[in-house]
Amino acid sequence: MRVHIADHPLITHKLTVLRDQRTPSPVFRQLTEELVTLLAYEATRNVRVAPVEIQTPVTTTMGVRIDEPRPIVVPILRAGLGMLEGMVKLLPTAEVGFLGMVRDEETLQPTTYAERLPTDLSDRQCFVLDPMLATGGSLGAAMEFLFERGAQDITAICLLGTPEGIAKIDEQVGDRDVTLVLGARDERLNERGYIVPGLGDAGDRLYGTV
Ligand code: U5P
């Protein structure tokens, strides 16, 4: 598995404001969108393109366009929804699928409660969005779901991850083609499954349900 951890002062600056508990939901949503657009730049580095000939005002030349079949963006509900706009801003032709996962706060086990995805993902590049890679249970289950639909090329974008979560996904995916793009790797998980220092519950902070 390839892991890319952002190393850019603008990303760290925006993450710092996001982490601050005084940051209100509207600002939190705006910053999440901006951060995802910055991370999406790295995450789409290997997006498939096809050669295309165009005519400039001066001459004909070769360029590229995003190849068919279109990539698919999969936000994991609910918190991943806050990342969707930032992603499709950079990849406007992508198809969007949905996967609803909920984590039992006692057992920390994820279950799927909703899905809207094509049945065959075998030649689609999949971009999964979930702001927090904590235990790795939710993202791992989401990836398993996509693998079962035939996905062979998955990139996940998370704002924050833990060493524990990264290790779990790495072990789970084995030698399959998976890339993780993270805004930062935080210190650890706490006993309640929260990322430390983290930013709290991303869904609550995005949607003001604190
Ligand atoms: N989560 C947070 N903040 C944390 C830890 C987890 O919001 O500090 C939520 C995220 O919404 C994410 C899910 O979708 O839990 C991931 O948890 P896990 O399955 O990786 O443990």
TrEMBL record:
The note on the cofactor says: Binds 1 Mg(2+) ion per subunit. The magnesium is bound as Mg-PRPP.
Entry keywords, A to Z: Allosteric enzyme, Glycosyltransferase, GTP-binding, Magnesium, Nucleotide-binding, Transferase
What domain of life? Bacteria
Description of how activity is regulated: Allosterically activated by GTP.
Q: Where does 5-phospho-alpha-D-ribose 1-diphosphate bind?
A: 78, 103, 130-138, 201
Matching entries from SUPFAM superfamilies are given as: PRTase-like
What residue stretches are annotated with the Phosphoribosyltransferase domain? 6-209
Q: Which GO terms describe its molecular function?
A: uracil phosphoribosyltransferase activity
Residues the record lists as binding uracil: 195, 200-202
Cofactor entry? Mg(2+)
Give the enzyme's EC designation: 2.4.2.9
Which CDD domains does this one have? PRTases_typeI (cd06223)
Q: In which pathway does it act?
A: Pyrimidine metabolism; UMP biosynthesis via salvage pathway; UMP from uracil: step 1/1
Please name the InterPro entries in this protein's record: PRTase-like, PRTase_dom, Upp_B, UPRT, UPRTase/APRTase
Q: Which reaction(s) are listed as its catalytic activity? A: UMP + diphosphate = 5-phospho-alpha-D-ribose 1-diphosphate + uracil
Task of the protein: Catalyzes the conversion of uracil and 5-phospho-alpha-D-ribose 1-diphosphate (PRPP) to UMP and diphosphate.
The entry sums up its family as follows: Belongs to the UPRTase family.
What HAMAP family does the record tag this protein with?
Upp_B
Protein name per its UniProtKB record: Uracil phosphoribosyltransferase
Protein's organism: Microbacterium horticulturae
Q: Which gene encodes it?
A: upp
